[in-house]
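Let's sit down with a protein and look at its sequence and fold side by side. Which protein we use is up to you, so please pick one and set it down. Label the sequence line and the structure token line clearly, so we can match residues to local backbone shapes. Go ahead whenever you are ready, and we will take it from there:

***
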Amino acid sequence: MKNELVCVECGRAYPVLSGRVKCACGGQLVPTPPEKLGRVNAPGIWSWANALATAVFKSRATLYEGNTPLIRASRLAEELNLREVYLKDESRNPSGTFIDRGSATLVTAAKSLRLTRLVAASLGDLGVSVATYSRRVGLRCKVVMPSYTTPVKAYQTAMLADSVEYVESYKESLSKAWKYGSAPANMPVTPQNPFLLDGYRTLAMEILTDLSTKRPGVVLVPVGDGALAYATIQIVSKFSPNTTVIGVRASSKSPLLKDVAVDRPLFADLLKELMDCSGGYMIEVGEDDVVSALKLLAKCEGMLTELTGATAVAALIKLSDDLRGTSPIVSIISGGPARDPAVLRMVVSEGHPRYLTRIGFTKMKILEILALQGPLHPYAVWKILKGEYGVNVSLRSIYQHFSELSEMRLVEGTEEREGRRRRKVFRITDEGLSLIR
């Protein structure tokens, strides 16, 4: 196969060895489709070396990612009155996400190109995965993530990355990753990085190969920024053109799904073009859909996954009447096992307060600061967050966090007199303390 990256805008091709992550015209670079599929005897996703653009690099990184099981879900199929359903369980990857496939090809390229640092923009899983593989090969890794990232992902990233910067929004994290990553010997890592896409394609390769002589009627793939969906469609449309790929978006209105909900996927235009050509389409699922999917997975197949990992199964349930008679159907479980106790309690107990799921990293740090230092003015908390935790958000945002925490009754404010001035300080409530104990 050609070891090239091609611009989807102008068609210009670059050798993989050039290390380019964006075309000179500013367009998206993607690896060229392989001529054929076939495995070789190699660890991890490198068993697909003959179909990977990054196989041109001989020193390859792996933590034995990929080759995840394609599980026949007979009881789930029976429950939904469907003929044949398979679950592609990506939680079996080293960091619990399909992103590990792309991280293996990404850090292989970066190390071989003699780069020294990766700078990743992340909503959670991307930062954890890229930092994991960077450690594996001895690269430095900086992660820029929104301050509302869930605490579990934020703390995992903090343990693995060399540095973490928290910013106001995902858009800002993308901008800063490009800014820092453009320095000499650095590489920006966003979902659009073509070296990530190369590894993502192995997921679809495995699905098509593991079904042996069959070809899936439908593949349901989660869509965050759309990188995995793009990589899946590229492979499926070439080697199984009669398969319909359905992209599954999480509702951006749900705080439960904020790790994967993106208002406008970075690959939105490319996905629309590909889906129009291949007969695929997009569907959106909400909080209630995903909670139902999580429960049904546990009940029928004994599988526990993060809510964000179950979006494709939620779409399967939602579309079950329309998919009756289609066979086989493959649904991708994209995330790791369920870990967040607040979310698990909410799922198990219908009456559990849902506000617990809205506590992101910044709000959790505010509660911790108040618990350790006692009542403080929001300005003092803002300075601590910025100076000690690298949370670069505006003072206005901090006041908004305090307002929301007050509504949840996790903090309460009292007025204090300071000379002639009166100011409002906040303390953590008993309910707030229960969250951080």
Q: What stands out?
A: The CA atoms of residues 36 and 51 lie 7 Å apart. The first helix runs from residue 74 to 79. The domain at 359-436 is CATH 1.10.10.10 (Arc Repressor Mutant, subunit A). DSSP finds 15 helices and 16 strands in the chain.
